[in-house]
Design a protein that fits this description.
There is one protein chain. The chain is of the alpha+beta class. It has 18 helices and 15 strands. Helix 2 packs antiparallel against helix 3 and helix 7 runs antiparallel to helix 9. It is elongated and about 135 Å long.
Length: 575
C-alpha cells in the first residue's frame, strides 16, 4: 500500500512529539513542565489522529476521527496558557475559578464537535474530498467553529504575551528560551488560519500537522540548548514576591503615574487596608504626607494606641532599558532608634556638660585645698581625690570621642600626615614640647618615650578626630601600662601599604605586661556584663573609631610580655 505523503508527515510529527514528551517527563516537577507536556501531548494526539484519519475514506468512520483531533485542538490552548502562567511564576492563577471556566468552555466546544452530526453548529455538508491520495474532507464552517478557534487564538495570544513580558522584564537570563517558546505557536496559528478561511489551492488539506516539526524545533532548542527547565523565571518571580512579603518593613510599589501596584502584608496590617482597596488607586490618596521625590522623610503613624515614627526610603524603579517606571516606598520603624538617640543625647549632655563642669569646680577646690593643707596624710588623700577627678574628666572626653565615632556622617575626612599626628599626640602625652631627634623620638621624665618610625611622607584621607582618638588611646594605654612608672617604651612603625586597597598597616609595640585576656574577650564579644567588663573606655574608643574609619585592629601579647597592636587604616593617599 502506498502511504500518502500528508499522512506520513502527520504521523511523523506525532512520533516526534512523543519523543519530546519522553525527554520532558523527567522535568515534570519543574514549574510549567507538566503543562508543557500537556501541550506536546495535544499535538501528538492531533497529529497521530489526523494521520490515521487520512487513511479512512468511509465518511461515517472518518467523522469519528474528528473527535480525538478536536480534543487535541481545543485543549492545546488551555495547556499552553497554563504552562505560560506557571512557567512565569503565576501558577496560582491556574488554580483560580476563572481558569476553571476556561477549561469548562473548551469542554463545551469539544462536546459540540462530538455531537455535531445532530445539530451542525460547528460545520455542515461534511464530505470526503481526497487529495494526494489522502482521505481529506471538505465541509462548510459554521459560526460556532470560528468562535471555537477564536477562543484558542486568544488563549495562545495570552500565553505569548506572558512569555514576551518575561523576556522584557528579566532580560538575558531567560531571553532565548522564552522567545523561542513564544514564537513556536506562530507556524501552527498561520496554518490553522489558512485552513479556516480555505486559502490556497487545496483547502481541504489541514497543513497544521505538517508544520508541527518547525514548532517542535523551536521547543527543542529552548529545552536542550537554552536549559528551558533549568532556568525558570517562576523561581525569580516567586523570589521577588517572597522578598517583598518577607521584608521586615512595610513596602509599597507604585508605577510612574503614582498608582499603587503592589504592597506587602505589613502595609495592610499597619494601615488596616486591603489590596482590593488600594491597588490601582493613587499613592497620594492614602499617603498624602509623603513626597516620593524627597529624601530624609519621617512620618508619625498611630498604630493602635501607640504613636510610632517611620523613616521613608524611596527607590526609583527602572526597566531593562533604563527607563523610570515607578518607585518602591519602604517604611522603616525608627521609633526605638529615635528614643534611644534622645536618651543618649540627654545622658551625653549630663555627663559631658553638667558633670564635667561640676568636676572642674571640684578639681579646682581640691587643688587649692592641697596647697593649703600642711598634713601629709590629708594631702595624700586630696591628691588621690584630685587624681580620680582628673580621671573622670578624661572619661568624659573619651565619651565625646565615642559620640563622634557614632556620628561618622558629621565628621568630614581630610588629608592627614600620620607621622606629624603621632608626634603631636606624643608631645601631649609626654608633656614635652619641642622637636625630637631624627627618628621622631619624644622624651619624657625618666626613660619613657615614643619612637615614631612612620615615614614623613605617609598620608591618609580620614577624619582627624577619629584617627587621633585611635592613636591617642593606643599610645596612652601603652605608656600607662608599659615597662614601669617612668620607664616605658612604645614603638610605632608602618609595616605595610597596599595601594590597591588604599590601606596602611601600622604596628604599635610596647614593653609592658600585655593587655589582660578579659579586656580583649570583652572586645571580641562586643558587649559588657556585670561580671565581664573592661576597666575603661579606651579600647572601646579604639574599636568603634577604627570601625568608623573602615579599618581593623587586633592585639597580640608576646610570650615574654609586651603588646603589639596591629592597626589597618583605609584612605591611603598615593605618594
Amino acid at each position: 500500500m502506498t502511504v500518502p505523503l500528508p499522512a506520513l508527515g502527520a504521523l511523523l510529527s506525532g512520533v516526534l512529539s512523543l519523543f519530546l514528551i519522553r525527554y520532558l517527563w523527567s522535568y515534570r516537577d519543574t514549574p510549567g513542565a507538566r503543562f508543557f507536556v500537556g501541550v506536546i501531548a495535544c499535538e501528538a494526539l492531533w497529529a497521530l489522529s489526523y494521520g490515521a484519519a487520512l487513511f479512512v475514506f468511509d465518511p461515517a468512520l472518518r467523522r469519528l476521527f474528528e473527535i480525538p483531533i478536536w480534543v487535541g485542538i481545543n485543549f492545546i490552548g488551555v495547556f499552553f496558557l497554563a504552562f505560560a502562567l506557571e512557567y512565569t511564576g503565576r501558577g496560582r492563577l491556574v488554580r483560580s475559578r476563572e481558569f476553571g471556566l476556561l477549561v469548562a468552555l473548551q469542554t463545551v466546544h469539544t462536546a459540540l464537535v462530538v455531537t455535531n452530526p445532530w445539530h451542525h453548529v460547528a460545520w455542515s455538508n461534511y464530505n470526503v474530498a481526497p487529495v494526494f491520495g489522502s482521505a481529506t474532507v471538505l465541509y462548510s464552517h459554521q459560526p460556532w467553529l470560528f468562535l471555537n478557534l477564536g477562543t484558542i487564538f486568544l488563549l495562545v495570544s495570552a500565553a505569548i504575551f506572558l512569555l514576551l513580558e518575561t523576556f522584557l522584564s528579566y532580560g538575558p537570563l531567560y531571553r532565548a528560551q522564552t522567545v523561542a517558546v513564544a514564537l513556536s505557536p506562530l507556524p501552527v496559528v498561520l496554518a490553522i488560519l489558512v485552513w479556516l478561511f480555505k486559502l490556497g489551492p487545496v483547502p481541504q488539506l489541514h497543513l497544521t500537522t505538517l508544520v508541527f516539526p518547525l514548532h517542535l524545533a523551536l521547543d527543542t532548542y529552548a529545552f536542550f540548548r537554552r536549559d528551558m527547565f533549568e532556568l525558570t523565571p517562576a523561581a525569580r518571580r516567586a523570589g521577588e514576591r517572597a522578598a517583598l512579603d518577607d521584608l521586615g518593613s512595610p513596602v509599597v510599589v507604585v508605577d510612574d503615574d503614582r498608582r499603587i501596584i503592589n504592597l506587602n502584608e505589613k502595609v495592610r496590617r499597619l494601615f488596616g487596608i486591603g489590596s482590593q482597596q488600594v491597588l490601582g488607586r493613587t499613592f497620594d490618596a492614602f499617603f498624602e504626607d509623603i513626597d516620593l521625590d524627597a529624601d530624609d522623610q519621617t512620618v508619625t503613624i498611630t498604630a493602635g494606641n501607640e504613636h510610632r515614627e517611620y523613616a521613608i526610603n524611596t527607590s526609583s524603579i527602572e526597566d531593562s532599558g533604563g527607563n523610570h517606571v515607578g518607585y518602591t516606598v519602604a517604611f522603616q520603624d525608627v521609633t526605638a532608634e529615635k528614643r534611644r538617640e534622645q536618651r543618649l543625647a540627654v545622658l551625653n549632655r549630663v555627663l559631658r556638660h553638667n558633670l564635667r563642669n561640676d568636676l572642674n569646680v571640684v578639681q579646682g577646690y581640691l587643688e587649692i585645698a592641697g596647697q593649703r593643707v600642711n598634713d601629709d596624710e590629708i594631702g595624700g588623700l586630696l591628691a588621690t581625690a584630685e587624681s580620680k577627678t582628673n580621671g573622670l574628666i578624661e572619661l568624659g572626653e573619651k565619651a565625646q570621642t565615642i559620640d563622634q565615632a557614632m556620628r561618622t556622617d558629621e565628621v568630614p575626612p581630610e588629608v592627614i600626615g600620620v607621622r606629624d599626628l603621632i608626634d603631636e599626640i606624643a608631645s601631649d602625652l609626654e608633656g614635652a614640647g619641642g622637636e625630637g631627634g631624627a627618628d621622631g623620638r619624644k622624651e619624657k621624665d625618666g626613660e619613657s618615650h615614643i619612637d615614631n618610625h612612620v615615614p614623613k611622607e605617609l598620608q591618609v584621607r580620614a577624619s582627624r578626630r577619629l584617627l587621633r582618638g585611635v592613636f591617642d588611646n593606643l599610645l596612652e594605654n601603652a605608656l600607662e601600662h608599659g615597662g614601669g612608672s617612668g620607664d616605658s617604651q612604645v614603638e610605632v612603625e608602618l609595616v605595610e601599604t597596599d595601594h590597591e586597597d588604599s590601606t596602611a598597616t601600622f604596628e604599635l609595640r610596647d614593653d609592658g605586661p600585655g593587655i589582660p585576656d578579659h579586656e580583649l574577650a570583652v572586645l571580641d564579644k562586643g558587649q559588657e556584663t556585670a561580671l565581664e567588663h573592661g576597666s575603661g573606655l579606651g579600647l572601646w574608643v579604639v574599636k568603634w573609631s577604627v570601625a568608623s574609619l573602615g579599618g581593623e585592629v587586633s592585639f597580640e601579647t608576646g610570650e615574654d610580655g609586651g603588646t603589639t597592636a596591629t592597626l589597618r587604616v583605609a584612605g591611603l593617599v598615593a605618594e
